[in-house]
Design brief:
3 helices, about 20% helix, DeoR-like_C, single chain, 3-stranded antiparallel beta sheet, alpha/beta, about 130 residues
Length: about 130
């Protein structure tokens, strides 16, 4: 997830760099060393199947932010627009990511549609 709208101070007219707040270690690696980006890494437990940080501590940390945009991937998208995950523990982190943003973008390819998964983490509107 990330907030990409720079802010400026009327007194100094300076623009702060965009800030990415992420629980995905692949994103951290991609942004590491970029001087034009602030990167905030979420703490918690690293999920063994992919390099994402999860758990209640992660969700609570994410909830501290108010961001312009959240960008997230999902395991599945049901016909009714439900965003789904196979792992119930992911629900809390995904809902925190959705809840802290003014706008949410879901990134998915055609393989995500019609899959069955147990945890409903949100809904998608067209």
């Amino acid at each position: 997830m990330q907030s990409s709208a720079p802010s400026s101070s009327p007194a100094t007219h300076s623009v702060s760099p965009p800030r990415a707040v992420t629980n995905n270690l692949n994103v951290v690696r991609a942004l590491a060393g970029k001087e034009d980006f602030d990167t905030v890494v979420v703490g918690g437990t690293v999920r063994p199947r992919d390099p994402a940080v999860t758990g209640e501590a992660s969700a609570q940390f994410i909830e501290q932010f108010k961001l312009d945009y959240s960008i997230l991937g999902v395991t599945a998208i049901a016909e009714d627009g439900s965003l789904l995950d196979f792992i119930l523990d992911e629900k809390r982190v995904t809902q925190a990511i959705i809840g802290c943003a003014l706008q949410v973008f879901v990134v998915a390819d055609n393989t995500k549609f019609g899959l069955a998964a147990v945890a409903r983490v949100g809904t998608c509107r067209r």
